[in-house]
Write a structure and sequence with these properties.
The chain is of the alpha+beta class. It contains seven helices and six strands; from the N terminus they run βαβααβαβαββαα.
């Protein structure tokens, strides 16, 4: 018997707006997200024979925020060719897909559906009059509907690291109620 269920997912999006130039912001983000040769790394991870070996490879490859870049999508390349997006053609719009296989494993061992939200996505947009906008949807909010405390704890730690890095890149102060510190260099 087959079935289809629909689960409403409410997501919290953090949006940071800064006067900092796009290039400064994206470079600031990359201070905490490593940019390994992903094909080579995934080959090494696939050849791992123990969890300890895999974890060690990930630790060596990750940036200070515990993440590595899996993919960078230059959405502005498409906009530059779209005749109906003429006002946006000269501005940068980049989506970073970043993650950590160990963190993903820690979430999905408790909640397989958490794999739909890992790796994370960070959208960085150059604004028309200068400055930059960053958007990030928290993993903890996306999996909240499942009510899995163990997966949520891992997701909250991940969100804390990512948000700390984004605040640092945007020059936005840490909120008073935050329980984490910004990613270190």
């Amino acid at each position: 018997m087959s079935s289809e269920d629909v689960l409403e997912v409410r997501v919290s999006r953090h949006v940071f707006v800064t006067e900092r130039p796009f290039s400064n912001v994206i470079n600031g983000v990359y201070e905490g997200i490593s940019q390994p040769d992903i094909e080579t790394l995934f080959g090494e991870l696939a050849a791992s024979t123990t969890y300890g070996q895999l974890s060690s490879l990930v630790r060596q490859a990750q940036g200070s925020a515990g993440l590595m870049r899996f993919l960078q999508l230059d959405l502005s390349a498409v906009l530059s060719l779209d005749p109906e997006a003429s006002g946006q053609a000269s501005r940068r719009l980049v989506r970073l897909i970043a993650g950590n296989p160990v963190t993903m494993g820690q979430m999905t061992r408790h909640l397989p559906d958490a794999g739909s939200y890992a790796p994370v996505s960070i959208l960085i947009q150059e604004l028309p009059k200068g400055g930059t906008r960053i958007a990030y949807d928290t993993v903890s909010s996306a999996i909240a509907a499942y009510g899995n405390a163990a997966a949520t704890e891992v997701a909250e730690h991940l969100d804390s690291e990512v948000l700390g890095l984004l605040r640092q890149a945007a020059g936005v102060p840490m909120p008073l109620n935050a329980t984490s510190k910004p990613a270190s260099h």
